[in-house]
Structures are given as C-alpha cells and as structure tokens.
Amino acid sequence: MKTLVAFFSASGVTEHAARELARLAHADLYQILPQTPYTRADLDWTNSHSRSTVEMKDLSFRPPIAGHLDNAEAYEVIFVGFPIWWYTAPTIINTFLDTYNFAGKIVVPFATSGGSSIDKTQGDLKRSYSALDWRPGRLLNRVNPKEVEVWLKELGIV
Fold it and tell me: CA-CA distance, 106 to 86, in Å (whole number)?
C-alpha cells in the first residue's frame, strides 16, 4: 500500500517521530507547514493572547498551510502526526484534512504530548471527519522501533 506520513511539528519533537515512523513504514514524508511559521512567543501556552492559545480557543479556525501535497489521491494509507495542544490536534491538522479528499482512505493519527493521551484527540478527529477510515493511533513521544513495527503489523500496514 502506498503510504504517507504527514506531520506538523512546532518544536521538532513530532518531526523526529514522523521521520522514524516513515522509515519503519517505508512511507513518503510530508511536513505540514503553516503559511506563517510559529515563533516561540506564538507557542507560549501560558499566555492567553499567544497565537496558539487564540487559535485553540476557536476550533473552527483554519490556519493557512504553506505548500501543497502533490498526488494526495495516490496514497492508500495516511499517517497524520502532530503535537497535542489543549488535549486535541492543533487546528492546522483540520486545515490539512479539509484540504485533501481522503474519504475511503486509511487514516492513522500519531501524536506527541507532554501529558495528554491520544484518546480524546482520536475521538475529536473521528467525529469531525467521519468519512475517513480511522485506525487506532499512538503517542510516539519516544519511538521504539520494535513497538512501532508491532503496531504497523496490527494495522495491516506492513
């Protein structure tokens, strides 16, 4: 199956996980980049006026994405990775999912987090994008290759 690992990473942690996942899944890699990059001040979750806080208070907000994923329709499996913000996926993930028609495709979330599980995030994504064939996701704070290989086998990806 043609597989893609698409990811948004604000600080590099999710990018590391995405690169390892792509290597283990023999997948193509695509970085979801915001049109306006996030600064350190933008990511200050303790500041109620920071960009990330303001965006996450309005879950209908869709930050514009820089670039375009060519041949999105060619992928059968799409892993979507992100850091968990405010117990869910950053709104730029919604921008990505709204931009491409992944209906009928296998979509697997993966995330990094300092303390949240992926459960609420998965539920939010499934409710918002019910036409997608969601498979169980994982937190990949530390990528253990053997554990990821078992997960990929459970998913039927490799």
Answer: 25
Task: Collapse the DSSP code of 5 into the 3-class scheme (helix H, G, I; strand E, B; otherwise coil) and give the result.
Answer: strand
**3-state per-residue secondary structure call for 54-118:** HHHHCCCCCCCEECCCCCHHHCCEEEEEEECECCECCHHHHHHHHHCCCCCCEEEEEEECCCCCC
Indicate the helix (H) or strand (E) that contains 133.
strand 133-134
Alpha-carbon gap, residue 100 to 20, rounded angstroms? 24
Quote the pLDDT of residue 57.
81
- C-beta of residue 112 within 8 angstroms of C-beta of residue 120: no
C-beta separation of 8 from 93 below 8 A? yes
> Which residue numbers in the chain have pLDDT < 70?
none
Q: Is 133 exposed, middle or buried (0-12, 13-18, 19+ CB in 10 A)?
A: middle
- Token pair for 141: 């704070």
Distance CA 150, CA 146 (A): 6
Taking the model in full, what pTM does it have? 0.93
What whole-number distance in Å separates Cα of residue 100 and Cα of residue 131?
12
Tokens 């920071």 appear where?
A: 50
